[in-house]
Amino acid sequence: MPHDLSTFGRLLSTERDRTLAFQRLVLGLVMLPHGAQKLLGWFGGYGFSGTMGFFTDVMHIPAPLAFLIVVGELLAAIGLVLGVGTRVAAAGIAAIMLGAIFTTHLGVGFFMNWFGAQKGEGFEYHLLVLALALPLVIRGGGSLSLDGALAERLRSEGAPLPHPGRP
């Protein structure tokens, strides 16, 4: 029975591009400790309970959304490092960053609080994360991604997958 894997194939398909691989690894490795802070309490973070409490009680984020942020940030970072679900992981990180900008950082201004003179952190970091995430959402994880390897394997088995760089 033939399977239509075209949508799945589009999620997996990527060019063998080292620049995309570099972007994917940098974004994943930068986001990994942030996710570990929130979910596991590593690197001086508050862990799952503390972060959930802050998000729901102080920031008034609905619990299901707070849960997605806490868990998604770490899982997306791991996915990016491995190149698994790259487009979905990068889109998730982008959504988290957009949410952070509009709920918290936009009112503080552009710059991070380098000198302790502001009431919070600006959104410049978030824009850099978005700049790394967007090409990954559009073009995939590049070389050395498990997505790309799986797409090649499925294509070699005759699955109707799009070729990288073609719609």
Which terms would index this structure?
mainly alpha, 65% helix
Question: How would you sum up this structure in a few lines?
Answer:
This protein has about 170 residues and is mainly alpha-helical. About 65% of the residues lie in helices and about 0% in strands. The chain contains seven helices and no strands.
Molecular structure report:
With 167 residues, the chain is mainly alpha-helical. It has one domain (6-156). It contains seven helices and no strands. The chain has helices at 6-12, 18-40, 47-58, 63-82, 86-105, 124-139, 146-156. Helix 2 (18-40) packs across helix 4 (63-82), helix 2 crosses helix 6 and helix 3 crosses helix 4. The two termini are 25 Å apart. The relative contact order is 0.21. The mean pLDDT is 88.
**What can be said about the biggest beta sheet?**
none
Number of H- or I-type helical stretches: 7
Structural class: mainly alpha
Q: What helical percentage do the residues reach?
A: 55-70%
Mean pLDDT across the residues is: 88
